[in-house]
Design brief:
There is one protein chain. By secondary structure, the protein is α/β, with parallel strands linked by helices. The chain contains twelve helices and 25 strands. A hairpin with a 4-residue loop joins strand 11 and strand 12. The longest helix is centred in the middle third of the chain and has 17 residues. It is elongated. It starts with 7 loop residues before the first strand and ends with a helix. The structure holds flavin mononucleotide and fe (ii) ion (2 copies). One fe (ii) ion (FE2) binds next to loops.
Length: 397
Amino acid sequence: MSKISEKIRYVGVNDLKTTAFEGMWPLPFGVSYNSYLVMDEKVALIDTAEVDFAAEYMENVRKELDGRKIDYMVVNHMEPDHSSLMALVREAYPDVRIVGNAKTVPMIRGYQGVTDNIHVVKDGESISLGGSTLTFYMTPMVHWPETMMTYFNEEKTLFSGDAFGCFGAVDGEVTDAGAMLFGSTAAAENTFAAFREEMRRYYSNIVGKYGQTVQSALKKLSGLEISRVCSTHGPVWEKHLPEVVGFYDRLSRYEGEKGVCIVYASMYGNTASAAKALAAELDKRGVEYAIHNLCTENVSYAYRDVFKYDTLIVGSPTYNNDIFPPVYNFMYGVSARLVKNRRFAAFGSFTWAGASVKLLNEMAAKCGFDLVSDGLSFPQAYSPDKCDMSALADRIQ
Ligand SMILES: Cc1cc2nc3c(=O)[nH]c(=O)nc-3n(C[C@H](O)[C@H](O)[C@H](O)COP(=O)(O)O)c2cc1C
Ligand SMILES: [Fe+2]
Ligand SMILES: [Fe+2]
């Protein structure tokens, strides 16, 4: 499991305990915190792991080192899921030299209380481990300001931090040819597709706002020959690497596939009936869609499918002359993620004075979405004559 190549060893851990990543995003298949050793005459550790996994992590490192010491600890990203064991690693290996860029320095001090033995690298700078060379590329705002990536020149391997990462603990082998998604019932041939959907969810939930800086990073790295990507979450990409890079490129360009993401919430079921009527009309027309009820499901999945499809249809009842709060929160998140190039329509029930549809349209217009309908605002119970989902389906098919 741990040997990626003669010189690269996996020392990360699987987290099957945390139910919500960042306290928000569900983890039905867990998540992995990946960390790697590059071993030559000198040894470099790339990132660490989450603090709750200290004992398991330190044992993984100790086993792979087999009595050797760590010379360098490379910090690609200071988010605590990868950096919170730095001080502990230093305690165990006091001579280790931390390698990071200027922006990591105050973060290392602030999080880990460490101020000395730090080697600050600039964009394009390298260190030698003997026969192996590590070169550092600054990739700011993917998705923190200090993020950088580490390229192992001789093995054409990119240690990419959170980029190309996905939710889901990795079972079986760590490389994608043999990796399985922990606890997934997907057939073996669908394993990659299952990981890819968890990558879409990770990207849309966490990195989604930073499409432009991800694009800059992809451009910057396009001159490198890359045959393996070791990210901080999910499998090591080798076999599926071209697909993964293309997928990430499309995600960061906010390119939607043909299809519809229906997102709604409902107190008494009236807006829900309209949502289901739209789904039935799309079914009739053979249009691909996903439907998400924000009252029963975490918003994480709705964001995933906002990034997946080119059309977004949102339903909300009017609530205190406003958008129903779960739907407002969702739309705020769509807007904060700077989602672009979507077709949009809104619908929803009210009782005495409808406001939600008009306000949703305003939010969508601010996002620059193409409004395909004025919106379908209807009083009290849903019925096709009050809210013509057939006509809407005709327009978006
Ligand atoms: C707390 C609360 C506030 C509401 N505020 C408004 C309102 O400002 N304007 C309005 O027309 N209807 C208002 N309604 C009525 C709902 O919009 C109406 O019941 C609608 O049919 C609910 O749709 P749903 O069944 O999809 O939840 C309110 C209802 C509740 C419970
Ligand atoms: Fe991160
Ligand atoms: Fe991370």
